[in-house]
Amino acid sequence: MRYRRLGNSGLEVSALGLGTNAFGKRADQDVSIRIVHHALDNGINFIDTANIYAGTESERIIGLALAGRRHEAVLATKAGLPRGKGPNERGSSRYHLQQELEASLKRLNTDHVDLYQIHTFDPYTPLEETLRALDDMVSSGKVRYIGASNYAAWELMKALGISELRGFARYAATQASYSLADRTPEAELVPLCLDQGVGIIPYFPLAGGILSGKYSASNKEPIGSRANTDPSFGRFLEDRYLELSEQVGKLAAERNVTPSALSLAWLMDRPAVSTVIVGATRTEQLDENLRSVDLELDSQTAGALNGISEPFRYGKPFAIYRLP
Fold this sequence. Notes:
- The protein is 38% helix and 15% strand.
- It is α/β, with parallel strands linked by helices.
- It has one domain (3-313): TIM Barrel (Alpha-Beta Barrel).
- An 8-stranded parallel β-sheet has the order 9-8-7-6-5-4-3-10. Strands 1-2 form a two-stranded antiparallel ribbon.
- α1 (29-41) crosses α2, α2 (57-65) crosses α3 and α8 (239-254) packs antiparallel against α11.
- The longest helix is centred in the C-terminal third of the chain and has 16 residues, at 239-254.
- The chain is globular and about 55 Å long.
- GO terms for molecular function: oxidoreductase activity.
């Protein structure tokens, strides 16, 4: 396994991270625990979850999986997206964040999280309130590092400016949709992160599985796929993404690698990327993704991937999650 610093922090994270959105949904408890153990056994130390994944089941299962092995994991979770219908069950207020952190710690069966991330920008709460609350969490020892997610470049820069002005803990990383099917972060977010020393953690690195080659124009809902188990995912299955997937598949076949490994290797080589989080619903799928770590792209392959994905540098992101 290769390890990289998370932004300009001193924290080392595996180049490939484990996303756990499927735990408690498409992967049951026993399978999910096996996946976590398999990840740790293969050098993956970055495990990413959130307080809303599978209605909190993801965090609970990870807490079970890390019993006796907590010291091997860089554990990341998030808060900020709606947890309920109440007026204080969403957002980045001190009230909500403190409440959610305590609940996450109990489910995760730990006294601290290594990276606590704001799941999306909150336009209704002053940034200074959010950042002061996060700084207090770091000072308390319950949080080691802090991060953002789904922030626009200007929102992230404003947060960094406030932290520097007030002497607060600083965002070490930011999560964004980033893949061959979504290169929109390269316009503003990537240059900002390079300048400010913030690590990028791409989510949907395989465009929800589209770049794995499992979907096609004739089969948009393979059995067991995200589209098959989550009808709302169908909105992502646009022809342009399926056509890109076909092109990636051809390049992969010519090089005797899987489309997933090729797509992930490309993303790992992008500037400012610290770790790439990929979900799994079985250990075999994790093994397939692990091949990307040792895959070195030659200039011809990298150039071909850049060429076919060029149109996806512009327009709307593949995905972004914001408060209503």
